[in-house]
Design a protein that fits this description.
By secondary structure, the chain is of the alpha/beta class. It is built from 23 helices and 16 strands.
């Protein structure tokens, strides 16, 4: 039975193919000639690519893989243009098919000319034994399939230019259109015949109409009498109750509560009145539901900003009358956007629901917990006696929200920043009080998050200064005032320059050169860093080329990456293109990420960092020891370098714990096969200690301060050959 079904399906499919080939003659050429050549080329390229992967070292693979990828790209573009040519012939993209076909034919020719060039590149590699065991016969096969495919494409274009490229159009033009024309002529003749017959019928109808007119007059007289009696009856039993019901509906629409249903004598009107009463109940229920939706957040079921403001104004009036205080808490979840970006909005919504439940559990029934927008919540606390009454509640909220949250197999740990404003101590106007609490919350975020702050007048000035700083930074971005200074990193093995770390500076028009502590957080939080990073990378690349040319060997440059940059697709694509284009040769670019970034973004950044490593960049874990990274992260991702924070290096001679910690970090990194950079080395004693512990590189004022590219190049004379440290 199963074999019979399979045979029927095969027969049916053969019939379909036969029908399609008859309808579209070019189908056989595309299936039997062009498709096999295309599949053969792609299969051969896969074979060559696999052979290169197995036979060549990673450093030798890049040029070969680039040539193979370029050939595959040109071939796929050529095939895609032919598909678009066929689609244009069917009028998919434009009613003028010939214009689109000409454009695609030009593109096919362009890509077809690229293929022999890439084949010649591969032949050159074969001649120099740079393709492993791949011989010239494999490239001859590719060349033969390319020529055969091109010949078949020319035949296909010839078939598509032929008027009989679609059989259905030929049938329509030669058979159906003449038949339709004959039918139109026949219908015209019938129309003339009907006109003649209609003229004869009109005369007969006129006579009949005269007779009917007298009969209708009599019937109309009796009809008027009947209608008059019917109106009187219907008005009493039906129309008047309906009018009274309509009046009741208008009163209901106007909000009149005391409405007496109209009397009804007929069953139909009684049903209408009953339906009216039921409608009133449904309208009242839906009005209550709409009123609830208008004043409550749909996700958390908490009061929204409109209802919260209304309750705040009411509470302010009561507090003014009774002489009591009210407290307003403004809460904002820290780094909530990262939860949405990394785990999705569904997880973010569930997180907001749990936060709302925990806040409700901590407050009294007389208090109001509201969701104002996004991840912003507010709590209105009434009937308190002094400002300190708000402290226990704020501490409970911080503690409750720091507890782990399980959502969709993810364990989340969040914190919240809380701002507190008091009425009438801070203000007596609702909007101003909300603004003051928001300002206090912003101050809590600036001072490290996961904290609460009471509003003070000084905070207003701080917020104003922050806004002014952000505006100045935006202007500085537009004017190109940000640049890189470079600090040497020196090898302890031979004292030579290993690389230069690129450190961002702001050349302020009035305040001079400013350090990153002033502006980096604002650049990162506002996303402005993404608009200047390409220019800064150009500076780093130019500096690296100058140093390499000066010293006669490749010098690396290291650049710090923030979580914002690693989550920006445009930046990631641009950096990968630079590495593919060999703008940074193998091993000459070091990307530094901090422990906090690693903890929050490893799942998202892992793939990107692995890609740049495969293209020759090195990855450094910056400020190791002061963040939240764990040994599992070191094991999970193969870092090339570990940089010890300067705070530990500065105390190695005065603090035994710091000395032991530095010693342990160096041993741990070496155990994982990673090299170590000691940051902040400023004295000979610090140098002697890290050298004795087997540290690989040092960075600090002892070997060089951050300076612009010209100053760094000038201080490295050709006679020193990059040696900055006595070995």
């Amino acid at each position: 039975m199963r074999n019979d079904c399979m045979q029927r399906l095969l027969n049916w499919w053969k019939c379909v193919q036969t029908w399609m080939e008859r309808w579209f003659p070019a189908m056989r050429l595309m299936r039997e000639q062009m498709l096999p050549h295309n599949q053969a080329v792609l299969s051969e390229l896969d074979t060559i690519h696999a052979e290169v992967r197995e036979a060549l070292e990673p450093e030798e693979q890049l040029e070969a893989i680039n040539a193979i990828s370029s050939l595959r790209h040109a071939w796929n573009n050529m095939v895609s243009e032919l598909r678009l040519l066929v689609a244009n012939r069917f009028g998919v993209f434009s009613s003028e098919a010939s214009a689109g076909m000409r454009s695609r034919m030009v593109n096919i020719g362009y890509y077809s000319e690229e293929v022999p060039g890439y084949l010649q590149t591969l032949r050159t590699m074969v001649d120099s034994n740079r393709l492993g065991f791949i011989g010239p016969e494999a490239l001859d096969v590719l060349d033969r399939h390319h020529r055969d495919w091109i010949n078949a494409s020319k035949q296909l274009i010839t078939l598509l230019d032929n008027p009989g490229w679609r059989v259905d159009l030929v049938i329509l033009t030669e058979s159906i259109d003449p038949l339709l024309e004959k039918m139109r002529q026949r219908l015209s003749a019938l129309d003339l015949e009907l006109d003649k017959q209609s003229a004869q019928d009109i005369t007969q109808l006129t006579k009949t109409a005269r007779t009917l007119s007298f009969s209708i007059l009599g019937i109309a007289f009796f009809g008027i009498l009947l209608i008059t009696f019917a109106y009187i009856f219907l008005n009493r039993t039906l129309l008047r109750p309906i009018a009274e019901t309509a009046m009741a509906l208008k009163q209901e629409a106007q909000g009149v509560l005391d409405i007496t249903p109209p009397p009804a004598s007929l069953q139909e009107t009684a049903n209408l009145v009953e339906a009216f009463n039921e409608m009133r109940k449904q309208v009242h229920m839906r009005q209550q539901h709409l009123d609830h939706m208008a004043h409550h957040d749909a996700l958390t079921r908490l009061p929204n900003r409109v209802l919260f403001r209304d309750r705040l104004e009411h509470a302010l009036k009561i507090a003014a009358r009774e002489g009591r205080l009210i407290g307003l808490m403004f809460l904002d979840l820290d780094r909530f956007k990262q939860v949405n970006d990394s785990l999705g909005h569904l997880v973010g919504d569930e997180l907001l629901k749990i936060v709302a439940e925990r806040l409700r559990a901590l407050t009294r029934e007389s208090d109001t917990v509201a969701r104002l927008s996004g991840d912003e919540f507010a709590v209105l606390v009434e009937g308190i006696n002094e400002r300190d009454d708000m402290i226990p509640l704020a501490e409970k909220m911080l503690e409750a929200l720091e507890q782990p949250i399980e959502i969709a197999e993810h364990e989340l740990r969040i914190t919240v920043s809380v701002g507190i404003a008091m009425a009438p101590l801070d203000d007596v106007v609702a909007d101003n009080l909300i603004r003051d609490a928001d300002t206090a919350m912003y101050s809590a975020k600036q001072q490290g998050r996961a904290a609460y702050r009471f509003f003070t007048d000084e905070m207003t000035h701080v917020v104003a200064e922050s806004l002014q700083l952000e505006n100045e930074i935006r202007s500085a971005v537009e004017n190109g005032e940000f640049l890189f200074h470079f600090q040497p990193v020196v090898s302890l093995r031979n004292g030579e320059l290993y690389c230069c770390e690129a450190l961002m500076r702001w050349q302020h028009s009035e305040k001079g050169l400013l350090a990153p502590e002033v502006f980096l957080d604002v650049l990162d939080d506002t996303g402005l860093i993404t608009s200047i990073i390409d220019t800064l990378l150009d500076q780093a690349s130019n500096h690296r080329e100058k140093l390499s040319k000066k010293l006669g060997r490749e010098i690396a440059v290291s650049v710090n990456l923030s979580a914002r940059l690693m989550n920006d697709p445009a930046f990631c694509r641009g950096l990968l293109k630079r590495l593919v284009a060999r703008e940074f040769p193998l091993g000459s670019l070091v990307l530094e990420i901090t422990e906090d970034t690693l903890t929050r973004e490893l799942a998202e950044a892992n793939e990107f960092l692995q890609q740049v490593k495969n293209l020759g960049a090195k990855i450094a874990l910056d400020d190791f020891g002061v963040g939240q990274a764990s040994l599992s992260h070191l094991r999970q991702f193969p870092f090339d370098l570990v940089k010890i924070d300067r705070d530990f290096i500065s105390n190695v001679h005065s603090d035994a714990n710091d000395a032991n910690l530095v010693r342990a970090i160096i041993q741990l990194a070496h155990a994982f096969g990673m090299q170590v950079v000691a940051e902040g080395v400023e004295t000979e004693q610090q140098l002697a200690f890290v050298r004795a512990q087997g540290c690989d590189y040092i960075q600090g004022y002892l070997v060089g301060v951050p300076a612009d590219s010209g100053q760094v190049v000038a201080c490295l004379s050709a006679g020193q050959n990059g040696s900055l440290l006595a070995t």
